[in-house]
Amino acid sequence: MTIFENSKKINLCLVGMMGAGKSLIGRELSKIYNYKYYDSDKEIEINCKKNINDIFEDHGEEYFRAVEEEVCLNLLNKKGCVISLGGGSLNSLKIRNKISKNSFSIYIKVKTNILVNRLKNNTKRPLLKGVNMKSKLEELYKERKSFYNNSDLIIENNFDKKDILSKIKSNINI
Ligand code: S3P
């Protein structure tokens, strides 16, 4: 499938669990296709003038999700962009509908054990603070799996950047 098979697909967006490597791959794709790059978490931080941890701490998850929905919908309304979406953004039906209408979605898939390893020293994920990381990630994955699997392209991240980019490139012919 190429992105031009459906001319309504005006953006590329990367979905998947936190720690999957969406930002790194997204940035590389934006260079390859000469698309503008956006990261929904970065945009939320700019919008709220606070980092993600402080937003969760000061206002709670519900507030974060409301801002996330607004920010993601605005990003998805742009044209010719690569957008990395926060891991929980697909819980929003509005975001899912918007993606399926106008974006080519790529699910960056990583096994939970590997995510735990990648995230164990990371302090930037409020949902993983003070909890059993593996159980929490498993719980979140269970809730989100069907949304991720609905993506236009599913790529297993083997952390070989060249290989992943070439797999994506062979599926998207812009
Ligand atoms: C979250 C993922 C994070 C960030 C927030 C919540 C989630 O984004 O939006 O910490 O619910 O999975 P990344 O997927 O970019 O880490």
What characteristics describe this protein?
single chain, 174 residues, alpha/beta, 5-stranded parallel sheet, 8 helices, 5 strands, 52% helix, 14% strand, globular, binds shikimate-3-phosphate
Tell me what you see in this structure:
This protein is of the alpha/beta class. 52% of the residues lie in helices and 14% in strands. The protein has helices spanning 22-33, 40-48, 52-59, 61-76, 93-102, 112-119, 133-149, 161-171, and strands spanning 11-15, 36-39, 81-84, 103-109, 153-156. Helix 4 packs parallel to helix 5 (93-102). The radius of gyration is 15 Å and the shape is globular.
Low-confidence stretches: none
Overall pLDDT level: 94
Cross-sheet strand order for the largest sheet: 2-3-1-4-5
- Largest sheet: number of strands, sense, barrel closure: 5 strands, parallel
Summarize the structure.
The chain is an alpha/beta fold and 174 residues long. The chain is 52% helix and 14% strand.
Give the helices and strands, then pairings.
Elements: E1 11-15, H1 22-33, E2 36-39, H2 40-48, H3 52-59, H4 61-76, E3 81-84, H5 93-102, E4 103-109, H6 112-119, H7 133-149, E5 153-156, H8 161-171
Parallel strand pairs: 1-3, 1-4, 2-3, 4-5
Bound molecules: shikimate-3-phosphate.
